[in-house]
Amino acid sequence: APAPSPAPYGLDYATVPPNTDDAVRVPGGYAQNVVVRWGDPILPGAPEFDFDHQTAAAQARQFGYNNDFCGILLLEGPLRRWVLFSNHEYTIEPLMFRDYDAEAPTEEQVRIGLAAHGHSVVEIVRDREGRMTVDVQGPRNRRITGSTEFLLDGPAAGSPLLRTSADPTGTLVLGTFNNCAGGTTPWGTFLSGEENVDQYFANAPADPRLARYGFEPGPSERGWETVERRFDLAQEPNEANRFGWVVEVDPHDPHSRPVKHTALGRFKHEGATIRLSKEGHAVAYMGDDERFDYVYKFVSSATMRKGQSRRAREHNLSLLSDGTLYVARFTGDGAEDGEYDGSGEWIKLAAGSTSFVPGMTAEEVYVFTREAGDKVGATKMDRPEDVEPNPANGHVFLALTNNTDRGKAGKAGPDEANPRADNKHGHVIELVEADDDPTGTSFTWSILLVCGDPADPSTYFGGFDKSQVSPITSPDNLAFDTHGNLWISTDSSQALEQNDGLFGVSLTGETRGRTTQFLSVPIGAETCGPVVTDDFVLVSVQHPGDVDDASPDRPGSHWPDGGSAQPRPAVVNVYREDRGRIGI
Ligand code: FEO
Ligand code: CA
Ligand code: CA
Ligand code: CA
């Protein structure tokens, strides 16, 4: 066998082998601690978590359920202190309540579910050993829930398509649901994508525009429509249109009203990540996580102002309110060159009040963005999740999680950008903007990884020796370290009968495509929200114990509390025992 290649800078750690342990596994020499768990108090006076006596009032002051995205901003001060933003994607009531009756949830259970959604903003501190904990007294600490008031802004705000009987202005929405991934902006705010919002609503009227977003007739799974009328689309059809946006939260002002940005379009947003152009335009890259849906970008009209003066901050908070929305078309250059690669085009959909889509007004483009993508012939992708620029060089990486419908009868077949039929394990594309200008309309692209068990001949690891890589499936969230390496967290590694994890990937030189596992998460969990700094790694451990037939009487996991405890989604901090740098 060939001698193993030396580890690239920043990826020098002992590879964690695939496993099915009920634990977070990290490389030898690394330590870990749980920063915050579902139910932990994050506001003064919040009660301690009590699984069997949970209340909505307690939940609204405690960390929510199923944290997904994780973002941090360093704060000034003598201690090492950050503000942490987590979003709470969704609830799993059958794992949250004993004897849960899905046919007849109690009003209090519904209200706990509403309060367990949304966001947590919380200050965290790191001690000398490297452990991180929550400062419950942090002045920025805040819970945003399924009942918090949001402002709709941008070109579709106030549209008749967004008005309801409770909000005739079409500008004020209660709550945010199914926030999946997100982004940390250069101007010091957090973004979060509303993803599978259809599942909260009941009784969708027959309307192709509702169907395109998955809204269905009949009762919803959670039954919230029995408690709040707005979840009944037969009574409030436009309420559906008020979800599916990118939201922005200013963590420095706990009294600020979070915003839903209509200029970034409405779809099943995974997240939004920002690159600044040379002039300072904010370019947001975004994926629509559904089989055969699209990749988008938004380019702001205005440019970012530097500094944290009040005027600069107010200006920057409006950057995502006005600009141009594009969708991507990928064109392959043929298989003859032995590579999956080609060129592409950003197709303009709308800018301000101008639509570029025949037969649709600008308001319709923003509210029914998927339909606009359909009309202009955007490329149908294999579930675009994180779409994120590498700060080292601006190259944009796309996690295409999987798509087992690719090539099925009546569905789109493989193309060069989505080359595998029955794509169980997903792939990763690298996109390079023409002239390195993120505001432009053309790009080139190539596939970096075709995921799976490296023994599977359909896999590809950037041309790197497959005997030296970890099995990886269902790439979901992306991050970059300060050395320019890519980090990938996975969702659904059950496809390879192993727990999900976090993987470091080299992008340059002879080790390009070298993919090695850095950590794994407990049974039933998904790894999300990675943050990789020189000194620590944060991950979200989402839905631990979510396995078939699990219930509070038969937990699928006891992580993180151990013993006979119920599983609790949490943020985990990983650091070097010797306080050295990650991967060095
Ligand atoms: Fe919530 Fe696209 O995963
Ligand atoms: Ca995700
Ligand atoms: Ca080619
Ligand atoms: Ca996912």
Explain how this protein is built.
The protein has 584 residues and is mostly beta strands. It has a domain at 262-450. Helix content is 7%, strand content 32%. It is built from 7 helices and 32 strands. Strands 13, 14, 16, 17, 18, 19, 21, 22, 23, 24 and 25 form an 11-stranded antiparallel beta sheet that branches. Strands 8-7-12-11-10-9 form a 6-stranded mixed beta sheet, with no helix packed on it. Strand 21 and strand 22 form a beta hairpin. The chain is globular. The model has no long low-confidence stretch (mean pLDDT 97). One calcium ion binds at residues 476, 491, 526.
Please state the overall shape, judged from the principal axes of the Cα atoms.
Answer: globular
Q: Sketch the major β-sheet.
A: 11 strands, antiparallel
Strand percentage, roughly?
Answer: 25-35%
Secondary-structure class: mainly beta
Ligand catalogue: MU-OXO-diiron, calcium ion
**Ends: how far apart?**
26 Å
- Tally of alpha and pi helices: 7
Give a quick rundown of the structure:
The chain has helices spanning 56-59, 93-96, 107-116, 208-211, 310-316, 362-367, 369-376, and strands spanning 30-37, 67-75, 80-88, 118-126, 132-134, 142-144, 149-153, 172-174, 179-184, 190-194, 246-249, 259-261, 273-276, 281-287, 291-293, 295-303, 323-332, 341-351, 354-355, 381-382, 384-389, 396-400, 427-433, 442-450, 460-461, 475-480, 486-490, 501-505, 515-520, 526-532, 536-542, 570-576. The chain is mostly beta strands and 584 residues long. Strands 13, 14, 16, 17, 18, 19, 21, 22, 23, 24 and 25 form an 11-stranded antiparallel beta sheet that branches.
